[in-house]
Amino acid sequence: xxxxxxxxxxxxxxxxxxxxxxxxxxxxxxxxxxxxxxxxxxxxxxxxxxxxxxxxxxxxxxxxxxxxxxx
Length: 71
Ligand SMILES: [Zn+2]
Hints:
Number of domains: 1
Helix content: 40-55%
Strand order of the largest sheet: 1-2-3
Number of helices: 2
Distance between the termini: 46 Å
Strand content: 15-25%
Bound molecules: zinc ion
Number of strands: 3
Structural class: alpha+beta
């Protein structure tokens, strides 16, 4: 899987978005069609992914270990 910059004019695949796509997400056949999206949609996807990652780092066992050593 990889993300490539699009050099031709394609519309963003996200519904409700009228921007031109700037990137394509290629799954090399895992999806029927490469997903094309604009910079704005890439940012939104990144924010969603970042939110999913955050809770894990907050409850990281490493931080708890550090606290216990100090006491
Ligand atoms: Zn878009």
